[in-house]
Amino acid sequence: MSNKMDGELRHKFDLMKRAFARGELSRRGFIVAALGAGVASTTVFGHVDRVQAATPKKGGRFRQALTGGGSGDTMDPAQILDSYMINVSSGMLRNNLTEIGSDGQLTGELAESWEATPDAATWTFKLRQGVEFHNGKTLEAADVVASLNHHRGDDTDSAAKGIVSAITDIKADGKDTVVFTLSGGSADFPFLMSDYHLGICPAKDDGTIDWESGVGTGGYSLVSFDPGVRTVVKRNPNYWKEGRAHFDEVESLFVPDSNARNTGLQTGELDCITNLDLNTVSLMRQVPTIQVFETFGNKHATMPMHCNTAPFDNNDVRLALKYSIDRNEFVEKLLQGLGEVGNDHPIGPANIYRATPEELPQREYDPEKAKFHLKQAGMDSLTVDLHIADTAFEGAVNGAQLFAETAKAAGITINVVREPDDGYWSNVWLKKPFSGSYWGGRPTEDWIFSQIYSSGADWNESFWENERFNELLIQARAELDTTKRREMYVEMQRLCNEDCGNIIPIYMAYTHAASSKVQLPEQMASNWELDGHKNAERWWFA
Could you give the CA distance from residue 354 to residue 392 in angstroms, rounded to a whole number? Predict the structure, then answer.
């Protein structure tokens, strides 16, 4: 029996290996299942021994190729906008008060604990003791106050200004306590403190922060930074997190071209890449020196219809279009199975209050229901323009063409208008009444509902106004009873599904590939790619 596994078998074997390491399969069960799948005995026993011995060890230079960078990248946490600098700043150099753990749950990072007043309008955070910045300065409450104030005020141009807008006052209560006063109750406030903009930097004497140096409390300190090209960091020997930050050095390269990323990994010049070309995933799975893996979070595609523009101002028209799209076809043909169907609301698999299928049944492709809603709108047929570009989401143009084909059975003609990638987000999105978009999702329901679906939100991409939804948004934000909050958020998801102008056909996986010498934890965070952008501190070399 050959030790060489094909792509599909290799993928199944990786899943069994992780189940074994998590304790879901016994040693005997793992061996039996693997041999039953056709894996050679030497491979099975070798992997059993390797999984059991998968204890992190330190050493090596980790080289990764990232996307989402550019020459305008900066160490200023207020100006971090995309994945490259999220990984460097939030994943290596700095820590937040809180973080999303590998299990998707909120956990303390620099904050040891926190508590709220009964109305959730005042929050008190206790800081960990003995934490040092890279320059030797001890972390104090004044550093937290200055770091949060960096994003507040009328003069700030911080991308996190909206996130901290509810804070009316921040004060230090001694050296290890910070008190936040909010304009109203917010049960999710500790989650907001995990936002990648809100990394803690050392305070200066004038109350501002030192962001220019890249100094933080993270697992790595800055060696060099060439915006849009390359960043090098080295391990922080005094990192306060025990058993984290295993690499001696990490080199991050901005490589926007997928072919260049693939080639770099296959030739051994890189140890990890992300955002794979889905057309090449099956081929990469067949390379024995490469491991391909994905995580499923809240990243999703949307097709917003402007609810204030005819014919989309009629909800029966919106429903007709929602029933005219074959979501399973999107998953199979666009994502090569690396995703799941959406249900016309933005609450994803990484959110805790996501509606179950029993609470909100999955909307299926149904041309007859689409025809019914067209008749309810007084129409026998419908013709609309869908403005789209490759940059809208993975496979967007092909997806629009698939949509146009399936809609024909409902008497709907969709004219696919291909727009240029350059200028799409400024000239098409929020401008054309029917277009494509995508979102990385947010860790809490309130966060994404407030930013994209609430009345008057700058990024309300379907220009949706629903009075009941907006009432629930305010009520749920301040509700500390989790059972009551769930009821509210499920109702809000139903309102999005039944009334909102956003078609949400798919949730998309974060895709990665790494050298087989890179050791991965058995559970990885899915709130962002690359283990929640914490790969530099959570992964290691064999």
Answer: 25
